[in-house]
Each structure stands twice: as structure tokens, then as C-alpha cells.
Amino acid sequence: MYGKVNQYIADHQMELAQMVSDLIRIDSQNQGVANTANEAEAQEYVYNAMDALHLSPKALAYDEGKKRPNVYGIYPGTGGGKSLLINAHIDTVAITHPDEWVHPPLSGLIQDGVIYGRGASDDKMAVASMIFAIKALQECGVRLKGDVMLLSSVGEESGEGATVGAGPAVRDMPRPDFAIVSEATCMDMDIASSSYTCFEVTVRGKAAHTCARNQAFYPQRKGLPCGSEAGVDALSKALPIIQMLYHLERDWNLNRRYEIWGAGGTPVPDGKGVGAFAINPSLIKGGEYIGSIMSSVTILYALVYSSDIPLEQITKEVVDAIMAVASTDSWLREHPPEVKIPIIKDWRGFKTSMDEPGILALRNAFKETLGREMSITANKAVMDATFIQQAGIPVVSFGPGGPETNQHGVNEWASIKLLVEATQVYARMMMDWCGISD
Hints:
Blueprint: H1 2-11, H2 13-24, E1 29-30, H3 40-52, E2 58-61, E3 69-75, E4 84-89, E5 92-93, E6 110-111, E7 114-116, H4 120-139, E8 148-153, H5 166-171, E9 178-181, E10 189-193, E11 195-204, H6 213-217, H7 234-255, E12 260-261, E13 267-268, E14 278-286, E15 296-305, H8 311-326, H9 330-334, E16 338-347, H10 357-370, E17 376-379, H11 385-390, E18 395-398, E19 413-415, H12 416-434
Parallel strand pairs: 1-5, 4-8, 4-9, 9-18, 10-17
Antiparallel strand pairs: 2-3, 3-8, 6-7, 7-19, 10-18, 11-15, 11-16, 12-13, 14-15
């Protein structure tokens, strides 16, 4: 039966690829902040695809206008087996620099074993893959003992999973025994992810006419005001703090190893390598007038850190480091920087024990399908797995695609070969975990 299902998926790979292409051509861009995505048309496609497979799809909308539905369907089992949830998100990041794309971003072009377009890798190939795995089982006459639930969610790219996306959806669905978030993990199994928050540093100076800059920066003859008496350039005061945060980011990555613990407390190598920490200056603003010394500057940082570290601890480390730099400057000692953390987002990572039975089942499904061992690692990004775990459901992340496919960048693409392999693994996992009915 396994071979029959695998062969069906391989033989119908262009039909699978066409589903990805169809989804790419439906614009579901998310601008990265709340209430800026329109996923309805793409979700209608998903709803119809699930309905064609008799999965009794349901739309669950939690946004104020009820225009951004999550869609889930169930392939019901005959009874006596474990249940499985596979989740993927339908929204994509915004299309940037469209003039730099080799092919139109929403073309869904299929060429030489590749599918091109925004969302190809993240995450529309995953949406198509999980649906097609069910189609393959049905076409091959496979009935399962346990239920398989599919969830196409909204708002992932803007961190709205907790409010309008996967989080509330899974609480309103039947509770599965195990869940897989189908993200672009390079076909690795991620059993943990980083946490993500934002903070803001504001450094205040003292405005003065641009012609007074010489007095603010250089000694003057007796009787003329100089230094902070004349003016204070906020950006110059912020530069040591900015430089320190670059050094702190490097120090964390080199000296605070992000370890993943397997069964019995055995360390598992992190195949994704260095990069569990990031202190990224995302936005800088300051100044009021071209003819004045800048009186304030504010830097917005995106902070990615190990999910083992509480927010309170990472907050203290950041604030203490900033204030330590400020203590070396006479102006900043009297006018300390203002630090706001967290702001905008506080997205905790997830972490699942290697002792979880679903992990062993997925590893076995991968090995039996593809003939090689699956890499176990952690993801340096955040994902909806957090909100699924918060609902009390054991979860991991596994899917095709990854950074090499230019996800979030120009010329995003998806490999049909990996699309087929992922679909075969999902189908095998469904059979192994849920059980094949006689």
C-alpha cells in the first residue's frame, strides 16, 4: 500500500505542482502588521479543494470583519486510531522590488522542475502538499483508523496566529493527538523554535541651530558656550549603543550555544548552525528639521532569542547593557536612554520533547519513504507551532522549502522534487500514525 501511494504522488506530480501554481496566482499578501492581509480568495480555493475530497470543510473567522477565515477539514477515520493535524498558512509576505523578479511574482510559472512566485516556498507548497496527501490516500483506496485534520490558517506572517489564526482555530477544532506545522524547514524536523520580540531605544539630545554644531562638538574660546551647553546630537550619543548591540548579538551567538535535548537528556546537534540570536535594527527615525541638530533618535529592534530564556531575563540583559554604555557618557548619565520592551510583538518559541511518540513516528515515516535519516534541529524563526502547543497539542514543524528558495525575497521558488517528497512523507505519516483500516 505504501508503494502504491508513493507512486500515485510521483505519477501525479504535475497535478500537485499545478495546485501550488493556482494558489500562487491568488494574491494573499500580508504586509506584516495586523489587519493588512486579505486571505479570503485563497481560502475559498482551499475550501473547494477540501470539499472536493469530502473533508467537510469549515471556515473559522476571528477578525472583526469576519473576512479572513481559517479553513479546516477532516478525513474521518473508522475508529480506534490516533488523530493527526497538519497545519500550513495561506498568507504570504509582501511582494518587494517587483522589477527585480525574473518572472512576475504572481505568475505561478512552472518550468524545469521549479514553481516560481510569491509564497511558492512559504507556504503555499505546504498547503497543497497536505491536501494532495489526502487525495493520494483516497485515490489508492486507503482508509485510516484515526482522523486526519488539515488546517489552512491566516495571519502567520504578521504574528496574528494567537488572535485570528491557528491559535483560536485549533481551540475550536477537535483536539488531535499530534500536530505537524508544515513550514519551510528544508525537510528537517524542527522540535523547537526561537522566541521573537521587539524593543525600542530612544536617545534624547538637545536641539540647536545647525550653525551651532561647531560649538556642540569642539572647544571654544573663553566665554562661548560649548558641549552640551550649546547642543547635543542625539545620533552621536546613540552610536555607542548601536555598536554595543552589534557586539552583544555576536557574543550571544558565539558563546551561548543553542542546544536541543533529545530523549534521556542527550544533546542533538543543531543542524541549522549559528544564528539562534539576532538583534536586528529594523527601523531608525530621528530629527525634526534639516536646519537643527537632531534632538532625539529612536531605533526599533527585532530581537530573536532562545526559547529557553524567559522574556524577563532577556529584557534585563538588554536594558542592563544599554545602561552600562550610557553610564560612560556624562550627558547620558543625566539623560538616560528610554528602553521599551516588549513592543509590537512578543512571540514565544515552542519546544517539544524528543520523547514525544509523534516525533518517532514522523522520523520513521521519513526514513521509510526517502531512505535516509531525518535531521532533527530547531528553527531560527517563529511559527504557528507556538499557538498550537499553547492549546496543549504536541507539535513539530516539518516541510519542504527553505532559505535557499528565496522565501521572503525576490524570485521565490519551490522545488517540485521536494514537494513530491514532502507529500509522500505526509501520506506515510498519516498511515503509520493513524493506522490503516482493514
